[in-house]
Amino acid sequence: MNAPFYSFGLFGDQASLVVAFIIGIGFGFFLERAGFGVSPNLAAQFYLRDMRVLKVMFTAIITAMTGLYLLSRIGFVDLSQVYLVPTFLVPQIVGGLLLGIGFVIGGYCPGTSCVSAATGRVDGIVYVAGMFAGVMVYAEAYPHMLGFVHMTSMGQITLARLWDLPYGLLVFAVVLMALGAFVVAEWTEKKFGGMEPDPKGWLSVRPWRVTPVRVLVLGLLAAGFVALAAGSPYRGNHVTIDTKDLALRAGTGADTIQPTDIADWIVQDRNDYTLVDLRAAKDFDAYHIPGAQNLPMTSLSANSLARNQKIVLYSSDSTQAAKALFLLETQGFKSVYLLNGGIQGWHDTVLFPVKSPGMDAAAFEKLALVAKYFGGAPRETSASTSAALAAPMAPTPAPTVAAPVMPAAPAGGIPAAQHKKKREGC
Amino acid sequence: MMPLTELTVSRHNPLVDPSLHIWGWQIAVYLFLGGLVAGLMIIAGVRLIAIRPSQREALVCCTIGPIVGLTGLSLGMFTLFLDLSHKLHVWRLYTTFQITSPMSWGSWILLLVYPALVANGLAHLPEAIPALARRFPVIVTWSDFILAREWLVVAIGLSNMLVGIALGIYTGILLGTFGARPLWNSAILGPLFLLSGLSIAAATLHGILIIHTPDDERPTFADFLLSSLTKLIEAHPLDPKVGPVLAGADNSFLTIEAALLILFLIGNTTSTSVHQQAASLLLGGPYTAIFWVFVIGMGIVIPLILQSLELANRIRHTLAPSIFVILGGLALRFVLVYAGQQSHWLEALNR
Amino acid sequence: MNSSDHSPKPYWNPYLSGFGLGLVLLSAFVIMGRGLGASGAFTSVTATVMHAIAPAHATNNALYANYLGDGTQSPLLDWLVFEVLGVLVGGFLSAALANRLKFAVEKGPRISSGSRLIFAFVGGVIMMIGALFALGCTSGQALTGGALLNAGSWVFMMCVFGGGYAAAYFFRKLWL
Fold first, then answer.
1. Nearest by CB to B313, which of C3, C101, C102?
2. CB-based contact (8 Å) between B284 and chain C?
3. Could you say which of A29, A56, A143 has the minimum Cβ distance to residue C93?
4. Is the domain of A194 the same as that of A284?
5. Which residue in A2, A329, B131, B203 has a CA-CA distance of 20 to 30 Å to B125?
6. Does B305 contact chain A (CB < 8 Å)?
7. What is the CA radius of gyration of chain C?
8. Model ipTM?
9. In which domain, by residue range, is A259 found?
């Protein structure tokens, strides 16, 4: 059995909504149990009187984190199939600060306000109304700040990949950090909140009594230690490759992507794929396909690539690219593709397209527009084709290509640059 | 096979063949109100026979119920009227009686509902709404006339029960006779809609009782509004004893309804491929989420839990289960009316 | 109508309720391959309502258009919308079981109910704008992303606490 169940097609979209409802019931239930339906309980967090928010949040985070780590490590869950909200650094910093301020003013966050409203609290209901108003305000302003909301895009990236640290080490560090925060929280509650220490609490005076909370804390700590030692949670350490499937894909070209498709993706500003340039840094600096990431074969490692995205490889040498594909497949990457023809294919079909005999004018016009968008030029005759092939990348086309003018939205023929589908994943 | 496929595809386009989707919200609302009225009548009839009162009492089941029922029935007839293409020809329904037509049966059953409900309501009306009785003293006379004769009370109770059962089953049969709609082609729909109507009616009465009972926990302004409303009509306190009875009865109705729904689905999935296809509209198809979340989850399971806890005295009696049951009943009819029209015999050929 | 004690019960221990919440989150990962959330549902509902009131305006707005999709399916048939529906029901059930259902305005001791409601509304507006910038709220980003070691979520979480503590002093009259 493979998890996540939904990603592996165990049930469909409609059933997923029923699952959503049931999971939501659990979510709302525990939020209410924790006392999050009442605003003073939540706001007290920011006056150090009652650290309930921090305790509940971090316990939930480390429970789910260690649980997911262990389930992935034993191979039950495919961690690469769990959706990560893409990182947009600056908008998320601004959003976080606004959210914090809104939290203090309003006394709720979106999830807790729903619980509050459902349990009859008038301030929660009014807060929910405020959120609808907030959407309308944001929606009106949205078209004018597209540049801002999409800036500093970093894709789907975990801290482990950002810092190039082992996943398990980070899991352990977060567990330690959370437990440390709990100790501090108990102390601040005593100091600022004037709370009596809970006789059943885990830091109470009788050190050897077994309480549920102590068991929980020890269990989480133990899970953290396991994570520290157990290695990468991603599948791929013992990956089995279906050679038949591999041969079939190679034979039918199902593992290649046409340069024109990549061009369309770039124009559409899609962010669900990673384009990897396998050539040496020198060649990469001379020219590379816009948006590509330079990862020479020598430094190709599993840590430096996102597992949740399509990966498209290209090089000047198709054998090299094919080797890289095989390498990544053995590391457990699911959707790796080759750019058909490599950088030369990009050069011939996108930058300098040739009008083939059977092609009608409109289609060629579109190709020409795309070529100009990327700083190339269409060629009318096949005579110049051979010339360009003879002197491939470096000398002749370089001036126009090296600094491709990033144009304003190309006219007509190309689908106007659509902005990234920026939807909340969660 | 090819030409058939082509035919199916084109006929599935509502723009090509708009008559495929002919029933809208009016029918769903009408079926809901019909079920509610049927349930109210049965409960009122049973209660009237059970207590056989010789004196006037303010009874929620036998006075408020019929009043709500009369209002609901009139609303339901109005929505049905809205759905008619030739509104001015409505009287023609009553110039004929077709023994094989459920529509014809229905229009005549509806005609019996009014007198039965009025008679039931009249028996205790002066006690429930004294202001009305003072304005129209003749109501008291009628009430006295009915209560003085026990056989009449029993007859009114019985007629309410019988007409109520007929009406409740009719709302399901109405859909069941459409042979061209495989999803509706099930004998279970009659009892299912009857039970659903009963649960809606019990929940409505329970809700009215709760609104009517003073409650410290209720916010002051809501209590003020409600108390002024009852003052306005000078209603007397209703019998609060019947509250737990209604909640218990509602739980039984909901349980049977759930069992019937499961039977309905099993019946369809073990039938011909056409019926399986029809049932798959609710089991993975486009109506799955709404059906399981609103009809089963919020309409049956959650009120069952809440009412059980109320009966076990674990929590206070609140309006919430009533609202859930009523919305669930409405959702059931919407889902069945809309999904039924999407189920199709030709669907199977399309595979 | 009732005989037994119906006073509100105490809340659960925060660590244990956090553990429960963590298990719910974990089950969402395992079953669905995604985490919890809340704010996205409000955008879907607003988009639907705007589309019903002013269809042209809604389809021309890039944000609403994203949520409306190609129009073949209602944006309300959305994972987060159904999840939030569950949150409402789950919160209600939990409160009903613990006798904590109450029609009241929750506020600090030094503020009137009217002002509390105004601040609640303003807070809701600010919070939602922040959540839309950040692609998620405390549930979708901090809780879910936190458990997935998502880089942006941890930055976001630190900023939420930073913003909250920075603003807390200025709004102390609301709560203390």
1. C3
2. no
3. A29
4. no
5. B203
6. no
7. 19
8. 0.94
9. 241-382+402-421
